[in-house]
Amino acid sequence: MVRAAVLPAVGAPLQVTEIELPEPGPGQVRVRLAAAGVCHSDLSLSNGTMRVPVPAVLGHEGAGTVVSVGEGVTHLAPGTGVVLNWAPSCGSCHACGLGEVWLCANALTGAGEVHARRGDDGTELHPGLNVAAFAQETVVAASCVLPVPDGVPLTDAALLGCAVLTGYGAVHHAARVRPGETVAVYGVGGVGLATLQSARIAGAERIIAVDVSPEKEELARRAGATDFVLASDTTPREIRGLTDKQGVDVAVECVGRAVTIRAAWDSTRRGGRTTVVGIGGKDQQVTFNALEIFHWGRTLSGCVYGNANPAQDLPVLAEHVRAGRLDLGALVTERIALEGIPAAFENMLAGKGGRALVVF
Ligand SMILES: [Zn+2]
Ligand SMILES: [Zn+2]
Question: What distance in angstroms lies between residue 173's CA and the mean position of ligand 1's atoms?
């Protein structure tokens, strides 16, 4: 038995309880978690904004050590440090054929899911986003783990699995920020901080962080922001004021709300790029009039998992970590136990802090 944070029903608080894991079957691995980040998507799954079958073990941003492997797994040995990858690509669907592995049609179909059981009554538990990282140990398909690159501490490596791949990918793959460009980042949570650091790595000249909470300014500046704007109705105007009345070349929205998507669009220069990373609900309607779409000539794009290819991007991120350009520890504002996850959700809703990291 291992301890895990279980979501008993949508909208209910997580319960820390003992769970029973199956032995890894063919093509599966058992991982002992070192750390797991609390991501906004976990909150969205727990409150029903995103759908998840329940009861479930949430958590999808984790890293740990391989404990044992199932039949046919020859590329991983017990003791290997691994990052969990919640969106494993199948290699055979249309998107994978195009090289767009982040859009793999089979990533979240539940086909490769491994189900644990509650220790008290044997109820089957679904793994939220494939990997069920809010547990001391988890059993996953071998395609859901990637070796931790050399030089990256195991606890820090957890952040690579979602926040950093997403923020880095938004900058490098989706928006393709070039040296000297100006960038605005809406929302200074875990992904926003990774986006700010990535904009700095990309050589952006002016990096403007926007958040509703003034206490985020210091965090944002440490992550590379050259300016901080407290979010208000006049944010786009303030951003134009900081950029020769033009607006930024690239605005990245890491919130997932209609009002911030609209503000990010309004902050973007004529011909610039607005990239939406935040995951919003169906109730968030964003409107544009036909004339402004023509007039501004902007590109508005979505971005899934940073449009990243984890197998290719992790070694690149590790190189940035080793060179001191990417500071994973700086994303973490709180180290907690499994019991601390509900409070971490509350902080997220209140707009407080960066990443909360469950350390096992
Ligand atoms: Zn996430
Ligand atoms: Zn695929």
Answer: 18
- In the reported structure, the alpha carbon of residue 102 is separated from the centroid of ligand 2 by a whole-number distance in angstroms of 8
Distance from the CA of 71 to the center of ligand 1, in angstroms? 30
Ligand index nearest the alpha carbon of residue 167: 1
Q: CA of 138: how far to CAs of 175, 336, 339, 344, in Å?
A: 34, 19, 18, 22
The whole-model pTM stands at: 0.95
- Most distant pair of Cα atoms in the chain: their distance: 64
Local confidence band at 112 (pLDDT 50, 70, 90 cut-offs): confident
Residue-wise pLDDT for 217-252, tens only, equals: 999 999 999 999 999 999 999 999 999 999 999 999
Per-residue pLDDT of 21-49, as tens digits, reads 999 999 999 999 999 999 999 999 999 98
The pairing of strands 182-186 and 248-253 is: parallel
> Residue 108: pLDDT above 90?
no
Which residues lie near ion ligand 1 (Cβ < 5 Å)? Answer: 39, 41, 162
Could you check whether the bond before residue 236 is cis, i.e. omega within 30 degrees of 0? no
Question: Within 10 Å of residue 257's Cβ, how many Cβ atoms?
Answer: 17
pLDDT of 8: 97
pLDDT score for 20: 97
User: What is the 60 CA–ligand 1 centroid distance (Å)?
Assistant: 6
Tell how far the Cα of 74 is from the centroid of ligand 2, in angstroms. 22
Count CB neighbours of 154 within 10 A: 16
Among 61, 83, 66, CA closest to 128: 61
pLDDT of residue 109: 84
Q: Determine the distance separating the centroid of ligand 1 and the alpha carbon of 166, expressed in angstroms.
A: 8
Given this model, what pLDDT does residue 14 score?
Answer: 96
Q: Which residues contact 183 (CB under 8 A, 6 or more apart)?
A: 171, 175, 177, 199, 204, 206, 207, 208, 248, 249, 250, 251, 252
Task: Among the bound ligands, name the one nearest to the CA of residue 309.
Answer: 2
Residue 241 Cα to ligand 1 midpoint, Å, equals: 33
186 three-state secondary structure: strand
